[in-house]
Specification:
The complex is a heterotrimer. By secondary structure, chain A is of the alpha/beta class. In chain A, about 35% of the residues lie in helices and about 25% in strands. Chain A has a single domain, classed as Rossmann fold, CATH 3.40.50. Chain A contains ten helices and ten strands. Chain A has a six-stranded mixed β-sheet with strand order 6-7-8-3-9-10, sandwiched between helices. In chain A, strands 2-1-4-5 form a four-stranded antiparallel β-sheet, with helices on one face. The radius of gyration of chain A is 18 Å and the shape is globular. The two termini of chain A are about 25 Å apart. Chain B has one domain. Chain B is built from 13 helices and two strands, in the order H-H-H-H-E-E-H-H-H-H-H-H-H-H-H. The N and C termini of chain B lie far apart (about 55 Å). By secondary structure, chain C is mostly helical. Chain C folds into two domains: about 300 residues, no CATH class; about 25 residues. At the B-C interface, helix 3, helix 4, helix 10 and helix 12 of B face helix 6, helix 7, helix 13 and helix 15 of C.
């Protein structure tokens, strides 16, 4: 579905990513992990046309995305949940959902809003509330709901669990797994919480200083004591066999 | 026949509101205070003056042209200056300065144009008044009816657009979170262009109305700029109807207070009437900085009614 | 040209302090400038009338009898230069105080608000003094304006050179003083607040108080420029102090020269003033044009600024990093601190071993 080949990108003169390769298929969760400042967010931004591509290619179902603008990429079937400012704080919850489904016609919009509310029933209780007044967990629920509005085939989530209580984190993780298993959506998940992310992922990619130093199955990553202790802060012996 | 002072106040307030609509609209939807709005207003005045001088006829028939020309200039301003600066993530101050520089360019061009008309065609382009071309309806000048009507029409149209249409919500979302708007499928640049087009057009119409009420000159817009900012801040930027409230508060206060004071203190107070909006601005900033449209009137009424504490029935 | 370069340099340096260092967009410079000029229109004439014992009947309507009063004062000053100098200095002190007060009063309503609201408020309130000056005759003669005593009359034929020199020295003095301020802790506080209010506040800086300080100091300097301008022209007329010349043009010059760099601002001011003078000098060459050439000048200036903003927003000279103490001094302090901490750790080790 999504294929990234030898990607070099950054912002203006700042070169952030060096030769990144990644594949994500439908019904697959690919997690991207790594220390702060390694380029994880830049990777997602690049796919969505928010960073400059110096070389390499990004294709989605055979369609080249390199020269497309963000609003054009949103129409090909990819949704993006940014790390910060993931909702329209000044608009109501209903208006947020409407904006997320901007490219849909009136009937499609109505049907999709109903579908999304059925996945996140808690949103129904505050449709007319200003999104900026929601709690952190509610905002993230809304943000994830917004990514589903265009019925995407691929969702990119940048640290969706940041700053959330463990109970809410667990609920969100269940929703993400539900998207993969029940809706067949491909998910690229960038997270600091490596343990939780790797538990649900089909593939993992470890990015350090803009370079991919590991790409493969999560349990293979956890086999390498050096990588796990150096970059994930985990004790390898505590996590070996996690996926057996 | 309406009382002349009331008519004066209503016309003036309506004109203030119409002039400020565009300024508030572009601030609301793109986050930019556009100092060059003054120049766009003046362009409207000169479009109507030029057409009336060369083609004759009623000034009102040229309002559409004034709308279009001012809108086009506003779009040029956005494409050449605002958009490149926004892409470079310029601060609000730098955006403000860029609009100031653009206003200076427009002011120069307008003055050059006015000089040209005066020298080549002997037209009174540096100081003109089109009142005598206005129509009379029910013993009142046309500008009274037209300004009030335009004010209400613009208010309803802009309010409906911003709150009930997809494009209006998109306009609001672009200023709230442009990055998220763009990943949601909104072409932020096109949306901003639409904002500036509408704002410029409104300025053009406001400018077209001005010479029917007051002296038209190359600095007519700039001379009212401070007043427009007062109205915008006093009314509040968050709600579009704040501009109408601000316009009426400032306009009515200015005219009625000046009128009352001149009875008590003599005609010498009349030149100071421009200080009244400044005083209202200061009071608003001290007590209601979000503008009067955002004041919680229910809470104030409760305080006034119950003296600060609500009485509970046991 | 030297005189106007000096006056504009002082205004621009005051704006650089407020905007470049403290991040406060003061669109109301004209208010403080006018305040300084009005002080020169009001105070010296009254001071000199008192000192030289000029006919009090004339003083009953200073605006109406302005020409006679000023000519009498000027003839006295020609023979008593020290009094002229004293009046000059006292008036400057008063002008600076007036400027500071105007800065405080105009900024107070909006100082806590977002910078763009503050900018717009200052722009709107900048016109207040002009409106009062034009309509309240006893202040500075209303629309017609008022003559100010020529405190340099004693210099005779070299008046122009003397005044230009004084203005130039005042400008250089301002530049050097502000450059010293730029190296001081207060400048670092300004910049900290400019760059991140929340972080500065968490370090214990009272953001509102510091912003007000920057505004008041800036207004005082701007007022000084207004007073010097009025002393140079010996005339104060409300119509002469417009927003275009005394707020908008300084903004453009400062952006052109480089925000946050005093020497950049000086360079930018010089180039702008020189360009202005060149255009005026060659005005006759453009006589064939069916419009006033001054508008070509503003068109050019506005266009240059737009080009600068889009292609080189940092201006001619970029802001330099904050200068702290000299390296040798820093090394001395570091050595002392290290010596103290090693002494303390030896003492605690000795205690443990016992």
């Amino acid at each position: 579905m999504l294929s990234v080949n030898n990607l070099n990108s950054g912002y203006g003169k700042l070169h952030v990513l060096f030769g990144i390769n990644l594949e994500c298929d439908k019904s697959e969760i690919v997690s991207i992990i790594g220390p702060n400042g390694s380029g994880k967010t830049t990777f997602l931004n690049t796919i969505f046309g928010l960073a400059d591509i110096f070389s390499g290619s990004i294709t989605f179902n055979g369609l080249q995305l390199n020269d497309k603008l963000p609003h054009e990429i949103s129409k090909v079937g990819i949704s993006y949940l940014p790390q910060m400012n993931s909702i329209f704080a000044d608009l109501s919850v209903k208006e947020n959902l409407k904006m997320a489904g901007y490219i849909l016609n009136a009937k499609e919009l109505k049907d999709t809003v109903d579908e999304v509310i059925s996945i996140f029933p808690v949103l129904k209780t505050f449709l007319s509330r200003k999104a900026g007044t929601l709690s952190g967990g509610e905002r993230q629920m809304l943000a994830v709901a917004m990514t589903l509005m265009r019925r995407p085939r691929l969702i990119m989530l940048d640290e969706p669990l940041a700053g959330l209580a463990p109970v809410i984190c667990q609920k969100l993780i269940e929703k993400i797994v539900h998207l993969r298993d029940k809706l067949g959506v491909g998910v690229i998940l960038v997270e600091q919480n490596a343990k939780k992310t790797l538990e649900i992922s089909d593939k993992a990619c470890l990015i350090v200083s803009g370079r991919s130093i590991f790409s493969g199955k999560p349990d293979e990553l956890l086999e390498s004591e050096e990588l796990v202790e150096l970059y994930l802060g985990l004790k390898a012996k505590d996590h070996k066999g996690m996926f057996k | 026949m309406i009382d002349p002072i009331l008519m004066d106040a209503m016309t003036y307030s309506s004109l203030l509101g119409i002039m400020t609509f565009g300024l508030t609209f572009v601030r609301r939807t793109t986050g930019v205070w556009n100092i060059a709005h003054a120049g766009l207003v003046t362009i409207g005045a000169y479009v109507v003056f030029t057409c009336v001088s060369f083609l004759g006829g009623n000034p009102y028939i040229y309002f559409l042209l004034a709308f279009i020309l001012s809108a086009v200039v506003a779009v040029v301003e956005y494409l050449l200056i605002i958009e490149p600066l926004r892409r470079r993530k310029a601060s609000t101050t730098m955006l403000l300065v860029s609009t100031l520089a653009f206003d200076l360019v427009m002011l120069s061009i307008l003055n050059i144009y006015a000089d040209y008309l005066q020298n080549m065609f002997s037209l009174p382009s540096k100081n003109f008044l089109l009142r005598k071309l206005d129509f009379i309806l029910f013993d009142e000048p046309g500008i009274f009816w037209v300004s009030l009507s335009f004010l209400m029409i613009f208010l309803v149209v802009l309010y409906v657009i911003l709150n009930y249409t997809k494009i209006g919500i998109a306009l609001r979302s672009c200023v709230c979170n442009p990055m998220l708007a763009s990943v949601s499928g909104i072409n932020v640049m096109h949306t901003n262009l639409l904002s500036w087009f509408i704002s410029g057009g409104l300025a053009g119409v406001a400018g077209g109305l001005l010479p029917l009420w007051m002296q038209g000159k190359p600095v007519v817009g700039d001379s009212l700029l401070a007043l427009m900012f007062c109205v915008s801040i006093v009314g509040g930027v968050e709600e579009i109807y704040g501009t109408v409230l601000g316009g009426f508060l400032v306009g009515f206060t200015q005219i009625l207070v000046t009128s009352a004071l001149s009875i008590v203190l003599g005609a010498a107070v009349i030149p100071y009437k421009t200080l009244i909006p400044m005083a209202i601005l200061v009071l608003t900033l001290l007590f209601a900085p979000s503008g009067i449209a955002k004041v919680n009137w229910k809470k104030i009424l409760t305080i006034v009614k119950f003296g600060g504490a609500s009485k509970r029935k046991i | 040209m030297i005189a106007f370069f000096a006056i504009y340099l002082i205004i621009n340096l005051s704006l650089n302090l407020q905007l470049g260092y403290a991040g406060i967009p003061n669109f109301g410079l004209v208010l403080a400038f006018t305040g300084g000029a009005y002080t020169v229109g009001w105070l010296p004439i009254r001071l000199c009338m008192w000192v030289f014992n000029i006919d009090s009947e004339l003083g009953a309507d200073i605006a109406k009898n302005n020409v006679i009063i000023v000519s009498q004062i000027n003839s006295h000053i020609q023979t008593q230069p020290l009094i002229g100098l004293a009046v000059f200095i006292l008036t400057l002190i008063a002008a600076v105080a007036v400027g500071g007060l105007l800065g405080f009063v105009s900024a107070y309503p909006a100082i806590r608000l977002r910078t763009d609201y503050l900018a717009i408020t200052l722009l709107a309130l900048g016109e207040v003094l002009s409106i009062i000056g034009q309509n309240y005759d006893p202040l500075v003669g209303g629309v017609i304006g008022i003559l100010a005593p020529d405190v340099w009359g004693w210099s005779g034929g070299s008046r122009f050179a003397v005044v230009s020199l004084v203005l130039f020295l005042a400008a250089i003095g301002t530049l050097l003083t502000l450059d010293l301020i730029a190296r001081s802790p207060i400048s670092r506080t300004f910049r900290a607040i400019r760059d991140n209010e929340v972080a500065a506040s968490s370090m214990g800086k009272d953001v509102t108080k510091v912003r007000m300080e920057a505004l008041v100091i800036g207004s005082m300097i701007c007022s000084l420029a207004g007073a010097l301008c009025a002393f140079y022209t010996c005339y104060v007329g409300p119509a002469a102090y417009g927003r275009l010349e005394w707020t908008f043009l300084p903004w453009l010059m400062v952006i052109f020269g480089g925000l946050g760099n005093n020497f950049g601002v000086a360079l930018g001011t010089f180039i702008f003033v020189a360009l202005q003078k060149l255009i005026v000098f060659y005005k006759s060459s453009f006589a064939f044009l069916p419009f006033d050439v001054v508008w070509l000048e503003y068109l050019l200036l506005g266009s240059i600024i737009l080009v600068i903003l889009v292609f080189r927003p940092s201006g001619l000279m970029k802001e330099k990093q904050s200068r702290t103490m000299p390296k040798t001094r820093l090394e001395e302090i570091a050595a002392k601190v290290l010596a103290k901490s090693s002494k303390e750790s030896r003492a605690s080790n000795a205690k443990k071993n016992r």
